Every structure is written in C-alpha cells, then in structure tokens.
C-alpha cells in the first residue's frame, strides 16, 4: 500500500491493523503492549482500532515493543524508502525519464552535479512566460 494514496484516516487504520497483527503474533494482550511501551492501555486500544495516530516517540516505542519496523506500521515498503541514510534512494516510483536521468548522473563528478543544480534552480524559478 503506497503512502501517497493513504488518507490520514486510512493510515491510522492501517497502522492499527499492523499493530494488532504484530501483537497477536507475539501472543500479547493490549494491556501488556501498552505497559511495555509505557502508554495507557486505552490509548493503545484507540491506536489499534485506528482511532488515533501515535506521536513519533510513541510510534518508536510501539515498534520496539512489537518487534517490527516502523515502516511496517506506517505502510511503507522497501520501494518507498531506503533502508538507511547511507543507502541509495529508492527508485521504484520514478518515471522512466527520471530513472534515465538518475542513471546518467551516477557517473558525474560532484562539480558537474553542482553545475547542473545551479541550472535547474534557474529553470525552476523561470516563469512559463519567459
């Protein structure tokens, strides 16, 4: 499921379903997950039912408690995001033209890429009337 296609309510529902599945896989109750994550049981219940989006620190605690990646909770696939900040950016959603451009740029020197960025900034700021 692609993140761009999810409305906030759908994302909450998806997150809740993923959390419930992970909790059930571990054989835990909602109260046990809540206690381990340091949140109130009724708050965790609302998250699981798709009625609430947790704050980032809570999301991190839930991912650790449930033993799953936050990417799973956020309905992100490996095509949507890179595995780490050091990994190359994912290219799964790029158009053929952008894929060709990325392929070309990989062989360019940093100085040449900087020059291209300057040209692109000029083009970005140009009006269609020019």
From TrEMBL:
SUPFAM superfamilies reported for this sequence: lambda repressor-like DNA-binding domains (SSF47413)
Gene Ontology cellular-component annotations: cytosol
GO terms assigned for molecular function: DNA binding; DNA-binding transcription factor activity
Keyword Transit peptide: no
Protein name, as recorded: HTH cro/C1-type domain-containing protein
Organism: Cystobacter ferrugineus
Alphabetic keyword roster: DNA-binding
Pfam families for the chain: HTH_3 (PF01381)
Domain of life: Bacteria
The keyword DNA-binding is annotated on this UniProt entry: yes
CDD domains per UniProt: HTH_XRE
Domain HTH cro/C1-type: 20-73
């Amino acid at each position: 499921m692609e993140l761009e296609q999810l409305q906030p309510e759908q994302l909450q529902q998806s997150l809740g379903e993923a959390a419930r599945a992970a909790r059930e896989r571990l054989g835990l109750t909602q109260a046990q997950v809540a206690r381990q994550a340091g949140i109130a049981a009724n708050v965790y219940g609302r998250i699981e039912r798709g009625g609430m989006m947790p704050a980032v620190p809570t999301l991190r605690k839930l991912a650790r408690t449930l033993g799953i990646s936050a990417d799973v909770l956020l309905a992100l696939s490996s095509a949507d995001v890179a595995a780490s900040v050091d990994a190359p950016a994912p290219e799964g959603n790029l158009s053929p033209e952008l894929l060709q451009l990325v392929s070309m740029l990989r062989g360019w020197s940093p100085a040449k890429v900087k020059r291209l960025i300057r040209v692109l900034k000029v083009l970005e700021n140009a009006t269609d009337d020019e």
